[in-house]
Structure formats: structure tokens, C-alpha cells
Amino acid sequence: MPASSFASRATASRSVRLFREFRHEQTEPDRFYQALADDTAAMIADLHSEPLTDAAVLDVGGGPGFFADAFTDRGARYLSVEPDAGEMHAAGIDHRTAVRAQGQHLPFATGSVDVCYSSNVAEHTDRPWEMADEMVRVTCPGGTIVLSYTLWWGPFGGHEMGLTHYVGGHRAARWYTRRHGHPPKNLYGESLFPITAAAGLRWARNAEHAELQAAFPRYLPRWAWPVVRIPVAREVGATNLVLVLRRV
């Protein structure tokens, strides 16, 4: 199983540590994203069949570039794609390996990277499966595709709007605006969309030129992974779904 190496590190203590870091996403983004980047690079290293040394790794939706050092420290040749210029420069990080482009139209040749991954981006596009198809296209045969995204019906589906998204995305956005005096960063219907585990699993099982290798909840300990097999329950309990595919 491709996730077996990662499974050994998917402990309760790791889950607690990451959930604690989530509290700092809005107030201390550098701290939050650095912790997430380190964990992501370790996860990708476990899921890829070869060492990341000299591997071409494409990060779809790289944002301000927090993840770059975590991968280059592992010897990878890191590239990122980000459509929002403001997001790219939000942290003042050097973007020598970043390209401004849409995930649905990746400006890379077919089969040009060893690993293509996207971390918490699919919920921010209204065409996530087009992006996923592009991720498969640019990955070389035998390469690894990892798509990780926040489930809408999970407790973090509303992002900074908290649990109010359960009363409806538009209503939650209005409540957030009244309370804080400004709209949420992730505005429902514009930069935040309801994405499900069922839709992701359906895409992964029918993806052209790729085989689904594993599907598991990203932030939960190994003993909780079977929730992904349970329809409806996984939409709430998995919180964030990781889909691992191999390019064929």
C-alpha cells in the first residue's frame, strides 16, 4: 500500500499537534504554514515510490511559497503554480520557482514532473476535477499525484467562518461580515466551494491514465482512516481527504 510509510507516522500526537497549529492560521500564518509545509513534504516523501532527491515536484496552488523550503531541503526540484498575484506576494517570499497560472491550464508539458500535488486548493475552485485531470497530465508515467482538500461538510469546511457553514455558505458569509466588519477571505461561491469526498473518490476511480492507490483522512490518526469507507460519515468525519494516484 503506497500510504503504508505515512501510516506509521499518522499518530494521535501528530493529529493533536497539527490541530493546535490550525488555531494560528489567521493570526500567525507564517507559523501555521511552516508547520503544514513540513508535514506535507514528509507525507509526499512517504507516498512517492522513489526518494525526492532531484525529483521534479509541482505544487498546484502554491500560494505565498511557504512550501518551497520544505521540499528543497529534501533535495527536490520544486515548482509552484498560483493564479493570484496578491496571494503569491502576500508573505514577501522570493518566487524564483513560481509560475502564475490556473490549475485547470497548467503551463507544463505532458509527463514533465515526477510528483504533482495540491494541498487544500481544490475547495477554492469551481472546477476541481479539471484541475485534477491536469495534474495527471503533467505527471510522468510511474509518477505520483496527490490531491488533498478540505471537505465541505466537515467541521473545517467553512474555513474561517467556523461551523456556521452548516446553515448555508452565503448565510455564513453574511454573518461573518456583520461580526467582523469585512467579508471572509474565503468567500462562498467565489473562492470557496462545496466539495465532497464522494465526488473526489468518483473522479479518482475513473481518472484516465492514473490509478487510485490510496485514500485517507489527512489529519486523523491511522486508527480513524476506515471512516473513508463509510458513505455520509466520511463527509463529516474525514475532515480532509487525501487521494493518491499513480500515473500510468
Q: Can you tag this structure with a few keywords?
A:
alpha/beta, 9 helices, 248 residues, Rossmann fold, 32% helix
Topology of this structure?
Blueprint: H1 4-7, H2 12-22, H3 29-47, E1 56-60, H4 68-72, E2 77-81, H5 85-88, E3 98-99, E4 113-119, H6 128-138, E5 139-150, H7 169-180, H8 197-205, E6 210-217, H9 233-237, E7 240-247
Parallel strand pairs: 1-2, 1-4, 2-3, 4-5
Antiparallel strand pairs: 5-7, 6-7
The counted number of beta strands is 7
CATH topology: the name is Rossmann fold
- Secondary-structure element series: HHHEHEHEEHEHHEHE
Q: Into which percentage range does the β-strand content fall?
A: 15-25%
> Spatial order of the strands in the main sheet?
3-2-1-4-5-7-6
CATH H-level superfamily: Vaccinia Virus protein VP39
Uncertain segments are: none
Radius of gyration: 17 Å
Largest sheet: 7 strands, mixed
CATH class: Alpha Beta
Structure description:
By secondary structure, the chain is of the alpha/beta class. It has one domain: Vaccinia Virus protein VP39 (Rossmann fold, 3-Layer(aba) Sandwich), CATH 3.40.50. Helices cover 32% and strands 19% of the residues. The protein has helices at residues 4-7, 12-22, 29-47, 68-72, 85-88, 128-138, 169-180, 197-205, 233-237, and strands spanning 56-60, 77-81, 98-99, 113-119, 139-150, 210-217, 240-247. Helix 5 (85-88) links the parallel strand 2 (77-81) and strand 3. The longest helix is centred in the first third of the chain and has 19 residues, at 29-47. It is globular. The mean pLDDT is 91.
Summarize the structure.
The protein has helices at 4-7, 12-22, 29-47, 68-72, 85-88, 128-138, 169-180, 197-205, 233-237, and strands at residues 56-60, 77-81, 98-99, 113-119, 139-150, 210-217, 240-247. With 248 residues, the protein is α/β, with parallel strands linked by helices.
